[in-house]
Amino acid sequence: MISVLAQERLLGAALGSILTGVVIFEQRRSIYRSISDTQPQPREPIFGRRSRQEFAHMWNKSVDKTFGPIIQALSSRGW
In this predicted structure, what is the pLDDT of residue 33? Predict the structure, then answer.
């Protein structure tokens, strides 16, 4: 069995670890809070969501038109 002295040391180590974890967590939280308070809030992107989707659609169409004949030629040859 574990002696009383070993139990006390184990309890002290566990409580010390918990206390250290809580202190570190609180310090990090206060650091992150102070950083977020001093930095400006993120702005909207230059292109909105709709503009990005339209751009992606146009890009895909242009790639299809450019490489479509090549893909068809390779497909007809069994590649």
Answer: 87
25: nearest Cα among 35, 17, 15, 14:
17
Length of the chain: 79
CA 38, CA 71: separation in Å to the nearest integer? 53
What parts of the chain have a pLDDT lower than 70? 1, 39-48
Cα dihedral: 5, 9, 15, 20 (round 10): 160
Residue carrying structure tokens 């169409």: 61
Query: Cα 19 from chain centroid?
Result: 29
